[in-house]
Design a protein that fits this description.
Layout: E1 9-13, H1 18-29, E2 33-38, H2 41-54, E3 60-64, H3 70-79, E4 85-88, H4 103-131, E5 134-139, H5 152-169, H6 172-175, E6 179-184, H7 192-205, H8 209-218, H9 228-238, E7 250-251
Amino acid sequence: MDLGIAGKWALVCGASKGLGRGCAEALAAEGVNVLLVARGAEALAATAGEIQAANAGVEVQSVAADVTTPEGRAAVFAVRRDFDIVVTNAGGPPTGSFRDWDREAWIRAVDANMLTPIELIKATLDGMLARGFGRIVNITSSAVKAPIDILGLSNGARSGLTGFIAGLARNPEIAAQGVTINNLLPGKFDTDRLATTFQGAAQKSGKSLDEVRAAQAAQIPARRFGTPAEFGAICAFLCSRQAAYLTGQNILPDGGAYPGTY
């Protein structure tokens, strides 16, 4: 299927590895020019080079910056201002107990996982509206649908973003002008972050890493973890011409793990 987005420009955050990289690879494979952003300069440069080598017909740029800061966002928009596609993505805040989180911990979580996507949208939305085409995809978490007790900071900040997007995406001044805004809520995907979580669980339980992985996979109806490539393909479809009638939605790729009907 031709997604109809070849030649467009995409900003992909957290793009050096994991789900962000999966999205960048899928978009580039569709002929989309990509500006990759991540904090780690070495990993980012390697990823940009590999995506460029695999997609000679597209332009691949990269900026090593922390988009959760005003300075980082300024560095990104100094390279390019106008984007047809924006994929927001930032690492989740630390796990723990709410009793241990002070105001600063909450502010950092809200800054990274709610206010940063909003700032990126604010900086790019009007250009999309003027051109009559735009796709914004926010990578959040399955915890928005099924909260996880030790992820309270993420539950709170990402749910705030979800509520904001629910109203913004349905604004007729946006929805009727060819711009869609959706959220992707990943379940358990085989990424470095998941591996780190499993290592912590193994140390705490005294079980081997393989035992922990197997037990976690067994809780998923699909009996496996998702791949970044699968996630990227979903993202690319949400950015397609064919997805023009899909907006304000929370898409939950989790192998069937969420137990609810709605």
